[in-house]
Specification:
The complex is a heterodimer of chains A (291) and B (263).
Chain A lengths: L7 H15 L8 H29 L10 H12 L2 H34 L1 H16 L6 H8 L3 H25 L3 H9 L4 H12 L1 H25 L8 H10 L3 H33 L7
Helix pairs in contact in A: 3-12, 4-5, 4-7, 4-10, 4-11, 5-7, 6-7, 7-10, 8-9, 10-11, 10-12, 11-12
Chain B lengths: L19 E10 L6 E11 L4 E5 L6 H9 L6 E5 L5 E4 L11 H10 L5 H14 L15 H14 L4 E5 L7 H18 L2 E6 L2 H7 L2 E5 L6 E6 L11 H20 L3
Parallel strand pairs in B: 3-7, 3-8, 5-6, 6-7
Antiparallel strand pairs in B: 1-2, 1-4, 8-9
Helix pairs in contact in B: 2-3, 2-4, 3-4, 6-7
The chains are: A mainly alpha (291), B alpha/beta (263).
Keywords (chain B): ATP-binding, Nucleotide-binding, Transport
GO molecular function, one term (chain B): ATP hydrolysis activity
Protein name (chain B): NitT/TauT family transport system ATP-binding protein
């Protein structure tokens, strides 16, 4: 039977040929079209929301001074965004959000790492963490105020209670769903216990951890807004506090303007998480096929 | 090539102490009446520098046996001796870490041994060169084809500097042409590095193509049925008449084994 005897050299070339065939080049589009592709649906969405808002205003269910329309809110928003005082309020809120979230990440990481590694702790605290996650953060405020008084600590306390369980759960979920084949591979490579945890399990749980961070942020932001509405601290203006006084003064346009700011900040931070998530997906090859 | 080859006096000595030795190994999953006997009193040895293929229908406990040798699991009864040899293993899936580049995946094998970072990097490049993937170190696993990933996996196994290579149907998911090429590559690397290989497959021709011996296991429970020596000259070809003839004989024996379960 005539079988061509391949030399080592033709081997390498055949392999290289197969490799080249398998790797059909796919390139990402340019930056400008990519940004435009993201932006126009958002513009469309904002346009639709504004249109519905205006329609409701025109329908006249409420008088103008109770429910202001876009035409009144936009100038108020412009005024506020050009005043230093308002930016100070945004600054205070953001500072609280960032510190609260940072501490939550720390607490969540330690808690998640311990609970995912130590079986007894998991049995003891696993469902408690999930329980905490479902507890409405506003329910914590009476206790927080008793413990810390009307101070920023009370707010931070509730923010952490809101966010840390999600972050811990994200990590625990990631550890639980580490693909067994990667564990086996790590084991065969000689990794054991802590090393296996550090080099295989923790990196493998990154996508789930990132999802936990994202959810944690959402909870932190909600808890913070609730806190700022409830815990009004003198001489320290914040977004929640502005909402409170706008309602007291029946300033509908101002109230809606601040709500828009809160929404935009929330979306902005969410976009950051999405960017991180997308880049992770790209690097791991988890991107969905686009039709 | 300046591949980190290790000195070996005579890698093909079939005598001497075997690299892997199984004595009356049994494995039962579960307890009591519900226990499933996966392996029953299996005795088997892989000589130093020997290429042994293990063949069997599904349910013969081939993968279980490899897991036991790799230390991923422990036998219910019997002894497994590897005399402190380093053992590397390849799976049917490439099992690469998706968060690492190709090079970093290979480097992982040297991490446990405490090789310094710079040396890890340059040695990883050498191992990738061995599997003809020299220029792909900075790629991510998902950017490669299945065959390429499996070669990265082989490079990672080699980087463990192991004496024994366990392979669990490593080419099962590849197309025929890629598989043929990888057979040639594996044979070359096995010879150059004097590895002892225990290769599990359900493809009879593949077993005859590669093995010095083909060990046939029965199914449920797994027992050694027969041990076929393959003395054909190397390099062999999967499509050659000689391989086909031996494969035919082994397939016949395999059929008998399978039919026992039908009645």
């Amino acid at each position: 039977m005539a079988v061509d005897q391949a030399t080592p050299d033709t081997h390498a070339r055949q392999l290289a040929g197969l490799d080249a065939l398998e790797l059909g080049g796919g390139t990402r589009g340019g930056l400008a079209p990519r940004i435009w592709g993201r932006v126009w649906p958002m513009v469309l969405a904002v346009g639709m929301v504004v249109a519905i808002w205006q329609a409701v205003v025109w329908a006249g269910f409420w008088p103008d001074y109770v429910f202001a329309g876009p035409a009144e809110v936009v100038p108020v928003l412009g005024d506020r965004l050009t005043s230093g005082e308002y930016w100070e309020a945004i600054g205070v809120t953001m500072r609280r959000a960032v510190t609260g979230f940072a501490v939550s990440v720390l607490v969540g990481l330690v808690l998640g790492a311990l609970v995912s590694r130590i079986r007894v702790l998991r049995a003891a605290f696993g469902s408690l963490i999930t329980g905490l996650q479902t507890m409405p953060s506003i329910a914590w405020f009476p206790l927080a105020i008793l413990l810390f008084g009307l101070t920023e600590s009370a707010i931070t306390f509730v923010v952490i209670l809101g966010a840390a369980p999600s972050i811990a759960n994200g990590l625990i979920g990631g550890v639980d769903y580490t693909p067994p084949i990667l564990l086996r591979a790590g084991h065969v490579l000689g990794f054991r216990r802590l090393q296996l945890y550090r080099h295989v399990i923790l990196p493998a749980s990154l996508p789930s951890f990132l999802a936990g961070l994202k959810q944690g942020w959402a909870f932190a932001w909600r808890s913070l807004m609730a806190g700022e509405l409830v815990v009004i601290i003198a001489h320290q203006s914040s977004l929640g506090e502005r909402l409170y006084y706008d309602r007291e003064l029946a300033d509908s346009a101002g109230l809606l303007a601040t709500m828009i700011v809160i929404l935009v900040i929330g979306i902005g931070v969410d976009l950051l998480f999405e960017t991180a998530d997308n880049s992770l997906r790209r690097r791991w090859g988890l991107q969905q096929v686009r039709n | 090539m300046t591949a980190p080859l290790r000195e070996r006096t005579d890698s093909r000595t079939q005598g001497g102490k075997p690299a892997v030795r199984l004595d009356g190994v049994s494995k039962i999953y579960g307890q009591g009446r519900n226990g499933l006997l996966a392996l029953d009193n299996v005795s088997l040895s892989v000589g130093q520098g020997e290429f042994v293929c293990m063949l069997g229908a599904s349910g013969c406990g081939k993968s279980t046996l490899l897991s036991l040798v790799a230390g991923l699991d422990s036998p219910t009864a019997g002894r497994i001796g590897t005399e402190g040899r380093r053992i590397a293993m390849m799976f049917q899936e490439p099992a690469l870490f998706p968060w690492l580049t190709v090079s970093a995946n290979v480097e992982m094998a040297m991490r446990v041994q405490g090789v310094a970072k710079r040396e890890r990097r340059s040695r990883a490049a050498e191992f990738l060169e061995i599997v003809h993937l020299g220029g792909f170190g900075d790629k991510r696993p998902h950017e490669l084809s299945g065959g390429m990933r499996q070669r990265v996996s082989l490079a990672r196994a080699l980087a463990q500097d192991a004496d024994v290579l366990l392979m669990d149907e490593p080419f099962g998911a590849l197309d025929a042409m890629t598989r043929d090429l990888l057979h040639d590559e594996l044979e070359r690397i096995w010879r150059e590095r004097g590895l002892s290989v225990l290769f599990v497959t359900h493809n009879v021709r593949e077993a005859v193509r590669l093995g010095d011996r083909v060990v046939l296991l029965s199914s449920r429970p797994g027992r050694v049925v027969e041990d076929f020596p393959v003395t054909l000259d190397r390099p062999r070809h999967t499509d050659s008449a000689e391989v086909a003839e031996i494969a035919g004989a082994i397939t016949g024996r395999l059929r008998e084994e399978v039919m026992r379960h039908g009645s």
